[in-house]
Amino acid sequence: MYLFAMALEGSGVAKLATLGDGSPAGKSILQCSSGHKNPVYLCTLLPNKVETCSLNLKFDEEDLVAFSVIGSRSIHLSGYFVADDGDDLRDDYE
């Protein structure tokens, strides 16, 4: 099982789940939990059949979000973060 957890400083949006490389056998299930709630299945990905899933999951700054994968292959997530108005992220890159 793969697990990724994050605490956001600002809000975030998960937009796409994509099946990673690996064994061609079996399905991989992406699940998500927020706070102390039970995990919810988001999608099931199958090699050579369904390898991507569109998402539109919005998370607030206060959310502790954990994504996990059940199955033999990883699942890659893409999306974006929206910083709080008071945060100045440009200073980190100068």
Automatic annotation (TrEMBL):
It catalyses: [protein]-peptidylproline (omega=180) = [protein]-peptidylproline (omega=0). InterPro entries: NPL (IPR041232). GO terms for molecular function: peptidyl-prolyl cis-trans isomerase activity. It comes from the Eukaryota. Its EC number is 5.2.1.8. Keywords: Isomerase, Rotamase. The keyword Zinc does not apply. The keyword Isomerase applies. Residues 17-82 form the Nucleoplasmin-like domain. It holds the Pfam family NPL. This is peptidylprolyl isomerase. It comes from Trifolium medium.
